[in-house]
Protein: DHH family phosphoesterase
Amino acid sequence: MPLKVLAEFDRFVNSLSEKDRIAIITDHDTDGVTAGVIAFKALLQITGKMPAMVIIASNQNEPLSEKTVKVLKKKKINKVVCPDISLDQKERLFFARKISKFAKILNIDHHKVYAKSIGKGNVLVKPQFFSKIDPSRYASAKMCFDLFSRHTNLEGSEWIAALGLYGGWGERAWKGFFSSALRKAGISLEKIKELHGILAAVDVLEKKRLPECFNNLLSVEKPANSLRSFAKYRQRLESMLREAEMDFWKNAECHPKLEYCFYLASAKYGIAANLINRLAKKAQKTTLIIGQRAGKEIKLSARRSDRKIAVNELLENAVKGLKEGSAGGHEPAAGGKILAKDLGKFKKKVLEILEKKRKK
Structure:
């Protein structure tokens, strides 16, 4: 499998030319944005032409939809490069197959394997297929850097991959690369933390400006200054997270015997993922699930830092049978959504699953 999947990747890249109209579709978090930037740089060097379009998925909408298909078709896209999004998940695979009717797809992703293929002529690359590194620690940005470096010189972009690693909690698995990347770019760990915090804040507070962040990372000469104009968002988000964390410790529904806490965040903006990352560092032996209303839906984020419970499977099993429910992600970190009216059913199912695991 290692040689086969890498050969498929190589064939896809070797088939690219300046005649292709390439679209990049990437996730909205730090790993997704940085993976998209690295893919953009690589494709520009390989084809001699900028990709025709970049779509940064939002956490309000699925990255692939009927609208996505129509836009790609209208722009006459014939190749799609999609980092950090699991197109092999059932609901996304449906749209991937529609896109496959007019465009070939390269999907570079580090989430759970849901299918071995995303359609004839398309290429699915996951760490599980060629590496022994924990997939959740092999950030998509690092994968893009490693894979595209087989075909072009990405020297100078190491710090972007390092930023993606930090955003995906993968820096410890790549200590040598991470420290070397920061040293080459002349930036500190504190600066990487700051850049990640800014991207996370823009994602939450002013999502429409993410393309500006993308372009800044793409063209910046001095990494330390790349996102300076967006720093105010980080300060605002930090204030919101401090307030939400205090409320969590007061009002979360905790079940000590199950090592589990559920919390429904009430903030105006979608802070669940950032809040739970903050809490997971302090409650590493607790299964955490945070929900947040978004219209008729509740967005879910789950964490379990010591991996005693695989939260991707926990959420997937808990949303089974719930209309419009979906979930996915990594063993220690996952996300999903349910209809708000199904919250009671979801919480009950989670308790049942955890109780069964406790009795084993």
